[in-house]
Design a protein that fits this description.
- The complex is a heterodimer of chains A (about 210) and B (about 100).
- Chain A is about 80% helix and about 0% strand.
- With about 210 residues, chain A is mainly α.
- Chain A has one domain: Four Helix Bundle (Hemerythrin (Met), subunit A), CATH 1.20.120.
- In chain A, α1 crosses α2 and α1 packs parallel to α6.
- The longest helix of chain A has about 35 residues.
- Chain B is an all-alpha fold and about 100 residues long.
- Chain B is built from three helices and no strands.
- The termini of chain B are far apart.
- Classes of the chains: A mainly alpha (about 210), B mainly alpha (about 100).
- At the A-B interface, α1, α3 and α6 of A face α1, α2 and α3 of B.
Chain lengths: ~210, ~100
């Protein structure tokens, strides 16, 4: 069942260990720039909560709390299946690894479907202020600031997730080939960091937008 | 699956499984606070639960606790920069 596991040494590295360390560090460097991007949005949401507490509470009650909670659980499950894929890749179990990767992609897709349904209900309930149609909370202009931040943050996260699912499907196709684990096992680990990071960001998005002082 | 393979899988999945259970438990607390229990200052508990969840993902899922010192420093610095940004901005907004 188990295949050989390893990393093919690229010519610009002195050793496999150096290559593994450099790729992990490179991924972390990118993830930190992403963290700062999202942190700016979280900060804006918190400032709005400080400056317009009643308006934000009013806007928050119109968000779909249970869809947000279900989506958080879905992403936590997807992180677990991604950890399963990484574990199987370390053990050289290609078949179970591929199944875990496909399960992760499916859960990511489920998240996007639920998010799409949430946006649809927002549309039906006139909760999208930037469209050319009446806005349900127009009487309280400050709510619009928070709802705008909600859409920017969740859409940006959704974009990251959509990219993540696409890359994961490509990686799954590549990993299905023989000898992939013998030469590129670290790609699964590096990608796993990205997926866990998407989960981490949503774990912060959920309380900041949906839960705090609801 | 042989007994050795089961043991190998358990060794690899024990920590992610613990993290998974911890995350679902912490999420349940935040959901309960948001949906049912709403008291003055509940945001403090909600924020603490969120910080714990972020810690679990970083340490158990992203393997920071087993990473090299350089990567641990790097990941810590990122959150330190965020802390600086939040502290300076909120200092301005809260005490202006």
């Amino acid at each position: 069942m188990a295949e050989a596991v390893g990393i093919a040494l690229s010519e610009h590295f002195e050793s496999v260990e150096q290559q593994r360390e450099a790729t992990t560090l490179g991924m972390w460097a990118w993830l930190l720039t992403e963290l700062l991007l999202f942190a700016g949005l979280f900060l804006i949401a918190l400032i709005l909560r400080i400056q317009h507490p009643q308006s934000v509470t009013l806007a928050t009650t119109h968000l779909k709390f249970w869809i947000g909670a279900a989506n958080t659980a879905v992403l936590i499950c997807s992180s677990f299946t991604m950890s399963g894929a990484i574990a199987c890749s370390r053990l050289g179990w290609r078949g179970p690894m591929l199944h875990c990767m496909l399960a992760t992609a499916s859960l990511g897709t489920l998240f996007l479907v639920l998010k799409g349904y949430e946006y649809y209900t927002d549309y039906v309930e006139h909760m999208i202020p930037f469209l050319d149609r009446p806005y349900a909370l127009a009487a309280d202009p400050a709510t619009r600031l928070f709802v705008d931040v909600y859409f920017v943050t969740t859409a940006l996260h959704g974009l990251h997730l959509m990219t993540g699912v696409s890359i994961l499907l490509v990686l799954t196709r590549m990993a299905a080939r023989p000898h992939f684990l013998a030469t590129h096992q670290n790609r699964i680990e590096i990608y796993g960091l990205y997926w866990h990071f998407i989960d981490l960001i949503w774990i912060i998005v959920f309380p900041v937008l949906y839960v705090l002082n609801r | 699956m042989t007994a050795d393979e089961k043991r190998a899988l358990w060794r690899q999945m024990r920590v992610p499984l613990l993290g998974f259970i911890a995350l679902l438990g912490l999420l349940a607390i935040n959901v309960a606070l948001g949906a049912i229990v709403n008291f003055r200052g509940s945001w403090v508990v909600e924020a603490c639960v969120t910080v714990c969840m972020v810690g679990v993902v970083l340490l158990l899922s992203m393997d920071v606790r087993e990473a090299s010192p350089l990567i641990r420093l790097f990941s810590g610095l990122g959150f330190f920069w965020v802390l600086i940004m939040f502290t300076m901005t909120l200092t301005d907004y809260l005490w202006r």
